[in-house]
Amino acid sequence: MEADVKFLLEVDVDGTASAEDTTRELGRILRYWAGNLRHYDLKPGAAEAVYDSAYREVGRWAVAES
């Protein structure tokens, strides 16, 4: 039996951006990673940096044991 896992997504939000820009950027990040996850083996220890639309690192996702 495989262990339960957690999928963690952490994104740093620019406090100077408007609420509209922040919402749009977070939506883009979520859509991108939702579509891209099929390329990863989602087992504990898997992780990747998350980038915004300007290709700046703004966070990361990771899979951990729950």
Write the layout of secondary structure elements.
Elements: E1 5-11, H1 19-36, E2 47-51, E3 57-65
Antiparallel strand pairs: 1-3, 2-3
Molecular structure report:
The protein is of the alpha+beta class. The chain has one domain. Helix content is 27%, strand content 32%. It is built from one helix and three strands. It has a three-stranded antiparallel sheet, covered by helices on one side. The longest helix has 18 residues.
Q: Key features?
A:
66 residues; alpha+beta; three-stranded antiparallel β-sheet
Indicate the radius of gyration in whole angstroms.
13 Å
Strand content: 25-35%
- Report on the biggest sheet: 3 strands, antiparallel
Helix content: 25-40%
Cα separation of the termini: 14 Å
Short description:
The chain is an alpha+beta fold and 66 residues long.
